[in-house]
């Protein structure tokens, strides 16, 4: 399998994640779609690391994982707080601010 | 133009601006504590500025070259960007300085009486002081940025003062109209300044005038036209004239100071100051001529039809400034004539407005001339001073207007070509119309049968109001003679405009004077035949000729504005959004309507849904990526 | 295999160490400090950290070096923007610390975990306890921003982006009043922000793949050697999208009005002032350093989004009735004006032309002004909290002439009226654009400023020429912190308008990127 296959796979995953953000209502699922996007980038990074023969890409993937973990903490805290108030995790319900 | 560094009193010329500014600051920040003496402070600062200005001018006369640059401070000085703030005191700016502070002082004094019963008098004087300071900065700055700052400052003060009685919806609307139309002009001026910067890297008068010679013809013409746009906006010239008559909603002293004597002449100042630019671009200068000629006729025709005393005077102002534009458009031969007419006009028009204010004061703020009549006996001082101003305006021989208007007409005829004849003819025709509408105004106000109601008791105004009127009346009588014959203004202004070539007179000056006087007499006679001889109906007759009907509607200027800007604006809105524009109402004009409409429609896109925002971002990202790929591929 | 320790110039890192150190100490204080004295201690720690950062950046002036193994570029532009962020950050922290205005003693909720509107929540409104977690969080955000503008490496840039964003997501959800709005703002900001970060990260990956490096200088060399092609262009596009989001440039601005309106006003002030500086610092560094040779690829794009941003911001601002929202759209328009300046460069080698200093000055001027404007918003209150609806501001000048005057000053500066800092800034960026031949853009910018001037002036007219409502809002008497903020920002707005020479000169001298 050539490098291209991995890249295409990562691009497909990224697209799925992006589309998921657009079509899913549950904030947790939306958030998971964003995580999917980040992980598809990880796949891209390690693929490129392999292709260019440098190790930077793999190290970056670790950085991304750490950052993503921090993002999960913050994100879940915010989503939880609004869920407790509204008893709903639907992003479409959060619609007071507009125009 | 060579300038020397300021010395002695002249290096304190900044005080002329600082004094009124200080007055405004004290009055605005001092709050109610200053209510009791605020108006006196406001007046005192302007009078002090006038005295100082007078001393500066006297000293200036002794300076070689008659031009002094007083460097104040360096505004911006980094790398290629270098804007110094300095003051330029030369004969031109000194003349304006005296006009502004002189007429300003008189009108401050007058306002003490006129605004005596207004609870917000302190604020009025604060704005008036602010105006004087900004106007002085406009004329005294030694670069276009300082001029622009003053330009915006007077615009702001004018806006505040038009809307001074903001509880009247008409005043608020008029202020808004003035604001919007002035913005159009301001954009022109701002763009002109940017062009100067981009092309010459400087905005100081010295640098710009030194460098314009190297510019391409097209750039010069663009520069001239942009400056003209700015001038038209501020001076109420065609096609941006509509705001000026509406601006009469402000208190009458404001109309006298800002919308007759000083601010509206800023456009003339701008073009006269930029003479070195216009000298190089005949095209732009030709447009100035056309604007002046069209406006002077337009104002005179419309002035014949209105019954509102202030509106008539306003259209007269529009028309007289048209004369000045015509004169500056003529080039070196016309500059001095324009400034001379500007000065005399400052005197008699300010006097006329103060007189009108005095009449309104007497009649309980009535402005409809059909309800006046026979006031000559009740208001003797007002009648005499107003009458002298009237004679000066229509160009009665040997009064102010006669000298300065004739000079402009002569200069126009001296061109010698068909355009000269055309312009001269227009100017003479304008003089006749001026005589007509002003005589009509005089007859309807001061003569004939009294048409006011029983409960009105016209009384002469207090002396604090009449005294300035008397001073201005004396000016209206004598200024022209003094400026043309005794202290020739063209000699005084020579350091600025250079020595004009001695033109060959196409028509002998005496003959011109004779013809103009004859046409004027014709106008007066016509007015007497149409108005003075008969009874004036208290309600304007409805069955009138199409010409009168057109004039009554300001020659359809608002209709034109509406169909040229508002309608297409609305159609555009509809086409853009495919929705009926029910939401768009009350907008000042088409532009605002379009913007407001598109604003609320665009606002719908801000749905409040996270997912639609994300969709917008994704779409944006795709467009960005696509655009970049297209650029690299192409 | 041995790993070489990267060279670290501690001196050059001092500002970052100061701020991040203060943030870490803040976390410790939060964990171990006694509750009663926590508030003053936290405020002191945060202020010492940010002011220390400010002072050290000033001391470092003139430094030009690449350190931390090439990951950080401490250069003139970076230090100028770091100092701007640290200064504006310290002022924002002062707004956070204001205790006199809200009857509940603070703008922040006591316990974010308590559901909004519950009984416990209403009880907590009356207690005098205040929440102190915001200080270390905000300090982390300030540190992240300062790292962002000196990042010389796409990975560090990404990490800094997250370090500055995550605390912001949290503190925008911590308003004491109108908690539903605040929480909604936090959710929106968080989801959209992470979405944008993912784009940025994908851009990093693509550029890495195409050029084999993430160092900005390395990317520059590779790009100049015409390597990469399509992949690099796609990567650049995604990187720019991520940064434009943070800078709230249309069409990536949609979060801005909602978040600005919902977040606690001190936080909104912080975001409007500091985030803008940080985001533009990164945009400038990315475009000038890494893609300086690819100018003709990105210029049309910046041209386009600048126009869209100015028009959207100015037009949508017209019909806003909420002042915070109006200022948010103003922020979008100003992002467009700033982009106008970004275009004004002949990016040749070390000289960045007139665009860079103009944008740097604009950022400083705009940051101070907008911070001041939001600070005024915290003063005007009705029973429910801040009175941000336009109609509530009618006739404010009669109630409180000073407040109205100060607000007018800020609004005039935002409108770009001469003798205020806004005019100088606009002048500088438009001139830079014109010098580089971006004529039509400057024209659009002028028209957009004219339109935008209308809605700023409308507020002034409303304050001065309308009769105040009977049950209108009251104007609170600010405590020392807010008074300091108002005095500093108002004085700076005036000074940068009247005698901007010194600061413009400083920006001119500092406008250098290394790396």
Kindly describe this structure.
The complex is a heterotrimer of chains A (99), B (634) and C (515). Chain A is mostly helical. Chain A has one domain (3-86): Orthogonal Bundle (Helix Hairpins), CATH 1.10.287.3510. Helix content of chain A is 79%, strand content 0%. In chain A, helix 1 (3-23) runs antiparallel to helix 2 and helix 2 (27-52) runs antiparallel to helix 3. Chain A starts with a helix and ends in a 13-residue tail after the last helix. The mean pLDDT of chain A is 91. Chain B contains 26 helices and three strands. In chain B, strands 1-2-3 form a three-stranded mixed beta sheet. The termini of chain B are far apart. The model of chain B is unreliable at 572-588 (pLDDT under 50). Chain C contains 20 helices and five strands. Chain C has helices spanning 10-32, 38-59, 76-96, 119-126, 134-150, 154-171, 179-211, 216-224, 230-246, 255-262, 265-290, 295-317, 323-342, 355-377, 396-399, 401-415, 421-435, 439-465, 480-498, 501-510, and strands at residues 65-67, 72-74, 380-382, 385-386, 474-475. Chain C starts with 9 loop residues before the first helix and ends in a 5-residue tail after the last helix. At the B-C interface, strand 2, helix 5, helix 6, helix 25 and helix 26 of B face helix 7, helix 9, helix 10, helix 12 and helix 17 of C.
Core attributes:
heterotrimer, A: 99 residues, mainly alpha, Helix Hairpins, elongated, B: 634 residues, 4 domains, 3 strands, globular
The global form of chain A is elongated
Q: Which oligomeric form is depicted?
A: heterotrimer
Relative strand content of chain B: under 5%
Class by SSE composition of chain A: mainly alpha
Helical content of chain A (DSSP H or I, runs of 4+): over 70%
Principal-axes geometry of chain B comes out as globular
> What series of H and E elements makes up the topology of chain A?
HHH
Number of helices of chain B: 26
What would you call the structural class of chain B?
A: mainly alpha
Number of domains of chain B: 4
How many distinct helices of chain A? Answer: 3
Mean pLDDT of chain B: 80
Which whole number gives the mean pLDDT of chain A? Answer: 91
How far is the first residue's CA from the last residue's CA of chain B?
Answer: 52 Å
Counted beta strands of chain B: 3
CATH topology of chain A: Helix Hairpins
CATH architecture of chain A: Orthogonal Bundle
Q: Considering DSSP H and I runs of 4 or more, what fraction of the residues of chain B is helical?
A: 55-70%
For the biggest sheet of chain A, the summary is: none
Instruction: Give the terminus-to-terminus CA distance of chain A.
Output: 50 Å
CATH class of chain A: Mainly Alpha
Domain NADH:quinone oxidoreductase/Mrp antiporter transmembrane (chain C): 151-449
Subunit structure (chain C): NDH-1 is composed of 14 different subunits. Subunits NuoA, H, J, K, L, M, N constitute the membrane sector of the complex.
Family (chain C): Belongs to the complex I subunit 2 family.
Transmembrane segments (chain C): 12-32, 44-64, 76-97, 132-149, 155-175, 187-210, 222-245, 266-288, 300-319, 326-347, 359-380, 401-419, 439-465, 477-499
């Amino acid at each position: 399998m050539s490098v291209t296959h991995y890249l295409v796979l990562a691009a497909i995953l990224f697209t799925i994640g992006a589309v998921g953000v657009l079509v899913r209502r549950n904030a947790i699922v939306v958030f998971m779609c964003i995580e999917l996007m980040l992980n598809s980038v990880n796949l891209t990074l390690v693929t490129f690391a392999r292709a260019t023969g440098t190790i930077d890409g793999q190290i970056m993937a670790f950085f991304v994982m750490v950052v993503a973990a921090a993002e999960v903490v913050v994100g879940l805290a915010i989503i939880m707080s609004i869920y407790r108030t509204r008893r709903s995790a639907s992003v479409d319900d959060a619609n007071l601010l507009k125009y | 133009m060579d300038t020397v560094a300021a010395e002695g009193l002249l290096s304190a010329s900044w005080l002329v601006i600082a004094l009124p500014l200080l007055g405004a600051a004290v009055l605005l920040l001092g709050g109610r504590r200053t209510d009791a003496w605020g108006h006196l402070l406001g007046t005192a600062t302007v009078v002090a500025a006038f005295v100082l200005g007078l001393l500066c001018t006297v000293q200036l006369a002794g300076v070689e070259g008659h031009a002094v640059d007083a460097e104040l401070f360096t505004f911006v000085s980094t790398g290629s960007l270098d804007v110094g703030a300095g003051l330029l005191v030369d004969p031109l700016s000194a003349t304006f300085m005296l006009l502004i502070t002189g007429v300003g002082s008189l009108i401050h004094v007058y306002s003490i009486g006129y605004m005596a019963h207004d609870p917000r008098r302190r604020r009025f004087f604060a704005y008036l002081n602010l105006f004087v300071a900004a106007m002085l900065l406009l004329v005294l700055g030694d670069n276009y940025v300082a001029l622009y700052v003053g330009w915006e400052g007077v615009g702001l003060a004018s806006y505040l003062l038009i809307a001074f009685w903001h509880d009247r919806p008409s005043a608020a609307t008029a202020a808004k109209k003035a604001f919007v139309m002035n913005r159009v002009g301001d954009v022109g001026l701002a763009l002109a300044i940017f062009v100067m910067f981009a092309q010459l890297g400087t905005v100081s008068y010295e640098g710009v005038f030194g460098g314009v010679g190297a510019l391409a013809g097209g750039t010069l013409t663009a520069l001239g036209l942009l400056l003209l746009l700015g001038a038209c906006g501020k001076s109420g010239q065609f096609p941006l004239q509509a705001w000026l008559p509406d601006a009469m909603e402000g208190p009458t002293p404001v109309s006298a100071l800002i919308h007759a004597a000083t601010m509206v002449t800023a456009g003339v100042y701008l073009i006269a100051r930029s003479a070195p630019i216009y000298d190089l671009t005949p095209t732009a200068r030709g447009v100035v001529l056309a604007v002046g000629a069209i406006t002077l006729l337009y104002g005179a025709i419309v002035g014949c039809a209105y019954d509102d005393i202030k509106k008539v005077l306003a259209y007269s102002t529009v028309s007289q400034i048209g004369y000045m534009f015509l004169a500056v458009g003529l080039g070196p031969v016309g500059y001095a004539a324009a400034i001379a007419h500007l000065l005399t006009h400052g005197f008699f028009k300010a006097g006329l407005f103060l007189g009108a204010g005095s009449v309104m004061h007497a009649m309980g703020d009535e402005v409809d001339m059909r309800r006046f009549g026979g006031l000559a006996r009740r208001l003797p001082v007002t009648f005499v001073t107003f009458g002298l101003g009237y004679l000066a305006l229509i160009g009665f021989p040997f009064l102010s207007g006669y000298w300065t208007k004739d000079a402009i007409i002569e200069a126009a005829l001296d061109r010698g070509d068909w355009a000269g004849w055309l312009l001269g003819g227009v100017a003479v025709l304008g003089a006749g119309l001026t005589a007509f509408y002003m005589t009509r105004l005089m007859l309807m106000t001061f003569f004939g049968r009294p048409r006011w109601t029983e409960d009105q008791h016209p009384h002469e105004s207090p002396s604090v109001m009449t005294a300035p009127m008397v001073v201005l009346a004396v000016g209206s009588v004598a200024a022209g003679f003094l400026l043309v014959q005794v202290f020739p203004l063209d000699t005084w202004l020579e350091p600025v405009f250079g020595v004009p070539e001695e033109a060959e007179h196409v028509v002998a000056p005496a003959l011109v004077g004779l013809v103009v006087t004859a046409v004027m007499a014709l106008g007066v006679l016509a007015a007497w035949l149409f108005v003075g001889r008969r009874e004036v109906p208290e309600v304007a007759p409805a069955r009138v000729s199409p010409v009168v009907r057109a004039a009554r509607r300001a020659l359809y200027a608002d209709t034109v504005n509406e169909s040229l800007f508002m309608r297409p604006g609305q159609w555009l809105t509809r086409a853009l959004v495919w929705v009926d524009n029910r939401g768009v109402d009350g907008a000042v004009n088409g532009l605002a309507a379009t913007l407001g409409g598109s604003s609320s429609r665009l606002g719908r896109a801000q749905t409040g849904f996270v997912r639609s925002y994300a969709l917008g971002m994704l779409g944006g990202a795709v467009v960005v990526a696509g655009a970049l790929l297209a650029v690299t591929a192409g | 295999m041995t790993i070489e320790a990267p060279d670290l110039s501690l001196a050059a890192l001092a500002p970052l160490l100061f701020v991040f150190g203060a943030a870490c100490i803040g976390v410790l204080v939060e964990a171990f400090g006694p509750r009663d004295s926590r508030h003053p201690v936290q405020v002191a720690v945060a202020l010492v950290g940010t002011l220390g950062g400010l002072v050290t950046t000033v001391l470092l002036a003139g430094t030009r070096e690449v350190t931390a193994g090439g990951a950080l570029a401490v250069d003139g532009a970076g230090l100028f923007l770091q100092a701007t962020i640290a200064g504006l950050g310290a002022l924002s922290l002062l707004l956070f610390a204001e205790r006199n205005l809200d009857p509940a003693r603070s703008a922040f909720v006591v316990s974010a975990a308590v559901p909004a509107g519950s009984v416990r929540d209403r009880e907590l409104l009356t207690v005098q306890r205040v929440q102190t977690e915001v200080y270390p969080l905000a300090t982390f955000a300030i540190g992240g921003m300062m790292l962002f503008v000196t990042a010389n490496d796409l990975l560090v840039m990404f990490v800094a982006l997250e370090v500055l964003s995550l605390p912001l997501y949290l503190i925008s959800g911590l308003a004491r009043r109108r908690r539903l709005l605040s929480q909604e703002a936090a959710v929106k900001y968080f989801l959209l922000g992470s979405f944008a970060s993912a784009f940025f990260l994908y851009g990093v990956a693509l550029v890495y793949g195409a050029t084999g490096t993430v160092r900005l200088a390395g990317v520059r060399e590779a790009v100049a050697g015409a390597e990469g092609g399509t992949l690099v262009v796609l990567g650049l596009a995604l990187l720019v999208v991520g940064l434009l989001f943070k800078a709230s440039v249309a069409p990536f601005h949609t979060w801005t009005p909602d978040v600005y309106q919902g977040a606690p006003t001190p936080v909104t002030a912080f975001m409007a002032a500091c985030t803008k500086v940080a985001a533009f610092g990164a945009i400038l560094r990315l475009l000038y350093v890494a893609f300086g040779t690819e100018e003709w690829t990105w210029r049309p794009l910046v041209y386009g989004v600048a126009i869209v941003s100015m028009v959207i911001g100015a037009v949508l601002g017209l019909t806003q009735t909420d002042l915070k929202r109006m200022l948010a759209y103003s922020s979008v328009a100003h992002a467009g004006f700033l982009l106008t300046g970004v275009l004004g460069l002949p990016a040749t080698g070390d000289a960045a032309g007139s665009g860079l200093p103009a944008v740097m000055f604009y950022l400083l001027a705009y940051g101070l002004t907008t911070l001041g404007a939001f600070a005024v918003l915290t003063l005007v209150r009705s029973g429910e909290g801040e009175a941000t609806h336009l109609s509530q501001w009618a006739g404010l000048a009669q109630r409180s002439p000073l407040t109205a005057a100060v607000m007018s000053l800020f609004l005039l500066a935002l409108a770009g009226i001469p003798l205020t800092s806004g005019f100088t800034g606009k002048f500088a960026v438009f001139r830079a654009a014109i010098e580089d031949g971006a004529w039509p853009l400057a024209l659009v910018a002028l028209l957009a400023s004219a339109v935008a001037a209308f809605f700023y002036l409308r507020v002034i007219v409303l304050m001065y020429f309308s009769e105040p409502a009977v049950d209108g809002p009251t104007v609170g008497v600010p405590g020392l912190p807010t008074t300091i903020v108002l005095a500093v920002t108002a004085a700076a707005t005036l000074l940068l308008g009247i005698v901007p020479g010194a600061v413009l000169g400083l920006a001119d001298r500092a406008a250098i990127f290394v790396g």
